[in-house]
Every structure is written in C-alpha cells, then in structure tokens.
Amino acid sequence: MKIVITSLALLASSILFAQESAKTDSTQTKKIDEVVMTKRVFEKKADRMIFDVAHSPIAKGTTAFDLLKETPLVSSTDDATLKILGKNNALIYINGKKTNMDADSVIEMLKNMPSENLSKIEVITVPSSEFQVESNDGIINIILKKKQTDGLNGTLKLSDEQAYYNKPAASLSLNYRKGKLGANGNVYTSLYPHRQFYHLSNGNNDYKNTSVGSIDDPNVNVGGYVNLDYQLTDKQSIGLSYNTRYNWSNNSRTNLNNFSQDFTTNTTKSTNTYNVEDAHSRNNSLNLNYEIKTDDDGSKLSLNASYLNFQRLQQNTNTTTNLDTQIINRQFLQKTPQNVDNYGFQADYIQKLKKETTLSFGGNYNHTKTDNDTKFENLIPPTGEDANLSNHFVYMENISGFYGTLEKNFGEKFSGKIGTRIELTHNQGDVLDKADPYYHFTNNYTSFLPYASANYNFNKENSLSYTFSSRVRRPSFWELNPSRQYLTENNYIQNNPFMKASTYYTQELNYMYKSAYFLVLNHSYVKDDNEQIPLQKTNANGDAELRYIRTNYGDKQEYSASLGMQKTFYKGIWNMNNSFNLTHVIFKGSVNVDPITNETFPEFNINKKSTYFMLQLQNNIRLSAKKDWYLGVNYFYLSPQEIALGKLGVLQSVDLSLKKTLKDWTFMLELNDIFNTNQVTINDLQSSGYYNTVSQNNYNRSVSLKVTYNFGNKKVEKVRKTESANDAIKDRT
What we know:
Layout: H1 2-16, E1 27-32, E2 35-40, E3 42-45, E4 48-51, H2 64-69, E5 74-75, E6 83-84, E7 90-94, E8 97-98, H3 103-111, E9 118-124, E10 138-144, E11 151-162, E12 166-178, E13 181-191, E14 194-203, E15 207-217, E16 220-231, E17 236-262, E18 267-293, E19 300-322, E20 328-335, E21 338-353, E22 357-378, E23 384-385, E24 391-410, E25 414-431, E26 440-457, E27 462-473, H4 477-480, E28 484-488, E29 491-494, E30 502-513, E31 517-538, E32 544-569, E33 574-593, E34 600-605, E35 608-622, E36 629-638, E37 641-643, E38 646-648, E39 651-662, E40 665-672, E41 680-685, E42 691-697, E43 702-712, H5 727-730
C-alpha cells in the first residue's frame, strides 16, 4: 500500500505546513587582536535570502539536510520534506544548477552530504522566469565551498534512529580534484521501516463505518551519484552526472479491523482487511552539460541534455474477511506497475551588458512517456481478471518552454527584473483496452507566465522588495494513472487522468531590517486547484463506499503575514530563531461526480474560509568555551485550520539535540517529538449529513545517534554542479 501510505500522509503533511516559516540569522563577530570583524550571516539580495553557513555555529558535523532545517525561511516537520515559507515544495539547486534526480533521491542525497561542504544557502521564495518550476514552488540554492588544492577527501557517516522500528543508515562521500579534472561521488544505504496507525470513520445519519489498525512498511534504500567535471579551456568545460536510487519494500502489511453499523436496519458487520504488498522501484538519471564563457564579464552559454527513467513494480494481495463467520468476503490480486521515460534538452544564455544590466534567454524541450499496465484479478469466485478495474494506460507529454529576462541595477539602492516564460504543452492519454472514446483524449494549451520584481535599499539596515510571478502546476504522473489503491474493501484512493493543470499567481512583499528581522506579506491565487476529495454514497451492494478522488475542485486564495527574527546573544553563545506566521485561506468549489465513472455523489462542498497561525522557536546554545558542545532546543505549534478535505487539528512538537565535536569526529544525539504530540487529526461534516474523520499517528517520537568522520585533504575544490534538462519532470515521478 505504498501509494496509499504516501497519499494519505500527504493529505496532511503536504498541506499542513504550506505556510510554515523558519529562522533568520543575524551577525557574528570574530575578534582578531584589537580589531572586531563583522560578518553578516543572513542577508537579503534582490531576489533571494542568503545564509552564510560557513559562519554559523551549527554548520559542523551534521548533514546538508539538517543544516537546511536550521536555515531562515526553511523548515521540515516530518524529516522527509523541506518547505519554504508559503511554498508547496522546495526545489534543490547546487551552485545555481538543479539536482538531477527525483524528489526522494534528493532528500537521501542531502541526508548524506556533509554540512562542511556548504558555503552558503540561498532561499528564493519566488523564482524568476529562467527557472523551470511549477505551481508556487520555491528554490534552495546550495553554494559549495571552493578551494584550489588537488587531492582527495571524504566523509563517512553512520547513524541509527529508534522510533517504532530501528532505522540504521551509512554513507560514504568522496571528492577528488587533479588539475582540470574533478570528480565526486556518494554511496549510501539505509533501512527505513515505518509504521502508521489509523483510526478512520465515515458515514451519515443512516450508517457508520470505522476502521482501526496499522500499516507496516519496510524499506531498504541503496543509491548514490557520480559527478565529473572537466575544464577543456579557461572558458569551456563539460560535465557528466549520474544518479541512481533503488528501493525495496517487500512484505508491506496493512491490517485494519472494520466495523459497519446500519442504523436503519439495526445491523452490524465486522470485517478485517489484510493487505500484503511487494514494491520495487528504481530511478536512474543522466545529464551531460557543456558551458562556455563568452566574455570576461560573466556572459556564458550553457547546454544540457538529460535522460530519466523511473520504474516501479508493485503488486498486492488484498483480503477482506468476515470476523463473525471467518468467511472471505473479497480477495484480489492487483498489479500496478509504472514506467516513466523522459528526454530533455535545455539551452540558457546570459549576456552581461553595460551599466549593470543582464539579459537572459533560453528554452527547453521535454518529451515524457509513461506506461502503466494495471491488472486486477479476483481470487475467489467469480475468479479471473476484472475488466472494469484493469487498464493499460499510456500517457505522452511534450512541453516546449521559452523565456527571457532583463535585470538592471540602478545604483546601490534600486534594482529590478522583468521577464516572461511561455510554455506550450501537448499531451495525449489512452487506455488501450477501452474502446469508449471517453478514455482517449488529447490536450493542447499555451501558458504565458510573466514575472516582475523590484528591490529598494533605503540604507544598509533597511530593504524592501516586491515580486509577482505566475506558474503552472501539472499533475504528477502517478496521479494520472486511472487505478485504485484500496485501504479497505469500500475505502480507496482513485486517480484521475482527466485532471487539468492548475495556474498559480503569487505576489510577495518582503521587508528586512538589520539583516536580522524580516516581514513577508504574501498573496496567492490558484485557479483549478486539485486535491483528493472524499466522496461517499451507498453502492449497489448496500455498503457505504468512500472514494478519495484526485480531481480539480475549484479555486483557492491565501493571504499570509510572516514575522521573523534571529538574534545571537551573549557573544555568540545563544543563537535564537523565532518566527510567527498568520494565514487566511479561502476555498471555493465543490465536487459531486466521479470523473472516471461519471457516477453522481452527494455534493462535497469546499466553500469555506480559515484563519490559523504557526509559531516556531529554535535555539542553539554553545555549552563550552572550546566550541565543541552544543545544545539544540526546538518547538513548533500549528493551530487548527481548514484544509480542502476537512478541519486539521492542533500540531506541535518539542525536539532536543546534543552535539559534540572532537577534531575530525562529530557525535550528535537527537530526541524528536518528545511528548508525542505531532499527530494528525482531520474532521469534516458536510451539510448533506456525511462526515469523515482521519486520525493518523506516524510515530514521530524517536531518538537517534549520528557519527561523522571527515578525512583527507579538506581543501579539495568541489565539482561544478550542472542543471539537467528535465528538472520539472523529475518532481512529478
């Protein structure tokens, strides 16, 4: 039930913290004899926030992922995703180029990248036209340290986390430089078994369904990457990168006890749904880059060609048994493979003009084909393949994009940037074993996506910036596959190949004071937003049926204000990060039709408003004069709020960490969600009388020990990172 787990978890986690804010950082001082040198750790530039991690007290002995969680405007509450203030997702760039791998592999890479390799972290809340991003995604650009010394260095990391299950992990990173050739690589492996506990309930005045039980999902990860960079001449270089990740989830088990009550007939029924799933996935991507500097002012041409293949082989046996009679009500075997192939090409040119003016333009082309041959076979009479639930869905998509931007600095105080992006999309979907024309569709549409920003520096302590951007969000490929993933006999998730792309319009006003305090005002409007909508009714067998259907439901607006500060007290001993976010969201829409079967349901109404807030406090305290002991104390509180499928309850968590550095060794002990309060509850009651509740425990309370050893020549220059031509595609696998 891997997709079920992911989907239900994301119902909460991907929406819960869409308005999170994180820390800011202030200035540090370093005393050299009688001179005090001041270094700004956190500063605002025209289109981004910059965090100088080389001068941060938390930068040693941890990972890039842990360091990003401590970065101003960035946060993570589930240890599996990163969020930027008010953003659905955080896309990772390295040295200005997007990482060439899928989202899960990016997180694994960050968790195995030594924090000592990082020099700066740039947070771009509203990306400009040259970036290939969707919806209101933001960008985290990691700047690696650069040294000129040849040699070899590396980092060995060992960790062990104890939550409900034990989760050991190990990784080895190597970096080599010899003359014009640079190479780095990483290999990692981890065991990540995970348990979720659910209490689900739905119904109306006539009936009630309740499901209680757990999902145990074993996971084994093996992966790594290799990056090669060769300097052909002083102005030309080529790069090659390869990334791979394999995941095995054998014998994943869902065990739910289900209780149904029919109040009209005063009857009850008790069943057990037991699902066993085997899933294997592999992701391989390759990118070739060529770059040439056309002058000495920074003008350059960059060319990229990329290939991506994602495969997931998944099958599950689902059995529902009557607990009173021990008779099997239903048993089926379902195979839901997914195969994604993508070819991408991209060209970018930057021309530095006179009077601090920069012209950028370029284009990209992506061709993607997905093949999903779903088989559904009944294992008890009447046995055999179910033609209605089996389908062979083939989807093809071509995207051509063109952009142009003009950036101008008008002295030290004022700068601005304007641009636009044009995307031409052609897609075609076919369910090969369905003759009905309804299952064969073709779409063509063009998106004009303007961008504008302006930044004004009143003085060295005060700056104000405004940004407007528009983007398109296309559905993920797995969301388009018209298959079902069953949680119980009558409770399942249903995907939708007919979903339209959503359009996002974002405005942001950002004020910064003394590189330590920030105020961000944000407004976003989403047209044709989509979500998993719970539709209920009584089916032909007289049973209450609940379908989570992924579909476009209507429009959404969000207004948010985020106030944050970061201050260092007691000569750098106490580093404090505080932020407060207030959000008002307006949903408009309703759903009453299954887009796959055209069945009519009682209307699910999403016309509602919600105001909520989030408080986040993070503290890092130096415990020794030698700067070798550190204590971390973190807390967040998220008030109740309305989301598309119901009202989300309070979420909060207290986390502690203790770090010890000893020459090239670092030891870190972490305690997460100490009071076990980071649990999800969602409740919804419709005017029709239908209700739906979800209570989910992900067992976030854990203790972990991490040991890091750095070896070799610490001054080896890092390999030049390159952007791939299929960046936006990888995030949809």
